[in-house]
Write a structure and sequence with these properties.
The chain is α/β, with parallel strands linked by helices. The chain is built from 11 helices and 7 strands. It folds into 2 domains: 120 residues, Rossmann fold, CATH 3.40.50; 66 residues.
């Protein structure tokens, strides 16, 4: 669906758009061989397993269930929560700069993230730019995740805006496609250097 007018507000994904997050950053400290990391993340602590916490399951419950299935990996699974901050490697400077400049121009900004409500407060503390968001929709609080249409509907209800009013920035192609189908403007975030030109091209900077 093609938006009917230029955007007037930003909707930001968080992980790997504002702050860098990768489980490999942690598990490279735990496993010596890259093949062992690959095996663990593809067969034990998978993205599908982690998605349960994004839907509102507690880390304790999610880890307990998986540890029962893989008792020989219990210590490694526990690290997913015990050493959670080690999965992060800082904020993305190019995104921070754009957010600050948009704020200086008075452009409304919001967040939409697949994230546990247990980790959201700590993530917000990782960069000062989170103070500029007028509202944030956190999947675990809503019990629905991207790319399900309902979470985008919640954004519209929360912001009072129409899809065509919002430029949505996300690193997931599936999330971008879902937003496009609903009439959002979108930017698929794959290269930090391409972000500012995209925002300028949309007429917001």
């Amino acid at each position: 669906m093609t938006p009917v007018r230029p955007p007037r507000a930003l909707l930001w994904d968080v992980g790997n758009v504002i702050v860098r997050w990768n489980p490999r950053t942690l598990y490279a400290k735990i496993f010596r061989e890259p093949a062992d990391i690959d095996r663990f993340l593809s067969h034990v602590c998978t993205s599908d397993w982690h998605a349960a916490t994004d839907r509102g399951v507690s880390f304790a419950d999610n880890i307990a269930a998986l540890s029962a299935e893989h008792p020989h990996h219990a210590e490694h699974i526990a690290a997913w929560w015990d050493r959670w901050p080690e999965m992060f490697s800082g904020a993305i400077a190019e995104t921070e700069s754009v957010i600050e400049d948009l704020a200086a121009r008075g452009v409304p900004q919001f967040a939409l993230t697949n994230m546990s409500s247990q980790t959201w407060p700590d993530v917000k503390a990782m960069s000062p730019v989170f103070r500029h968001f007028r509202a944030a929709v956190v999947s675990a609080e809503e019990r629905v995740i991207k790319p399900q249409p309902r979470i985008y509907e919640i954004v519209l209800e929360r912001t009072g805006l129409a899809p065509a009013d919002l430029l949505f920035v996300d690193d997931s192609a599936a999330n971008i496609a879902a937003a496009q189908a609903m009439g959002f403007h979108t930017h698929h975030f794959t290269d930090p250097a391409a972000l500012r030109p995209a925002i300028e091209g949309a007429g917001l900077l």
